[in-house]
Amino acid sequence: MGVRLSQSNYAMKKIDKPKCPSILVVEDDADIRELMKIFLEAEGYQVSLAGDGVEAIEQLQAGARPSLILLDLMMPRMDGEQFLKEMHAKQFSQIPVVIMAGHCAVQQTADQLKAVCCLTKPVELEVLLNTVQRLVPIDSKRDAA
């Protein structure tokens, strides 16, 4: 004797399940991209990856609407600065962006490009997580606290 769930019960459970915030990581270094994906998914986030600004814009144009974008500035094809200009020109400016760059002088650029904040590389995982959680908290973790 077991418990049987009908399709309608399953569908209702699926609807009731809270949606995890999604993050788009735009980084040309494949190792850093993959590390960030593993780390953020372990914390409960859904993570998509793009190797440069061109891939990221393509994802947005295809309908992706991440809760947050983590953006490297120095990339081939389309760098972070050009990506942000394209993003704002194409009406995706409501998505918050955190710039990740190798030097602190980028903060002024981040302000000019309307990024939420700038993290200096190499980014400590704890600093990254604190920033992400502050901008897009996961409800179940916030409710458990």
Describe the fold and architecture.
The chain has 145 residues and is of the alpha/beta class. It has a single domain, classed as Rossmann fold (3-Layer(aba) Sandwich). The chain is 46% helix and 17% strand. It has 7 helices and 5 strands, in the order αβαβαβαβαβαα. Strands 2-1-3-4-5 form a 5-stranded parallel β-sheet, with helices on both faces. α5 links the parallel β4 and β5. α3 runs parallel beside α4. The chain is globular and about 30 Å long. It starts with 6 loop residues before the first helix and ends with a helix. 27% of the residues are buried. The N terminus and C terminus are likely disordered.
Sequence-ordered SSE layout with sheet pairings:
Elements: H1 7-16, E1 22-26, H2 30-42, E2 46-50, H3 53-61, E3 68-72, H4 80-89, E4 97-101, H5 106-112, E5 117-120, H6 125-135, H7 139-144
Parallel strand pairs: 1-2, 1-3, 3-4, 4-5
Helix pairs in contact: 3-4
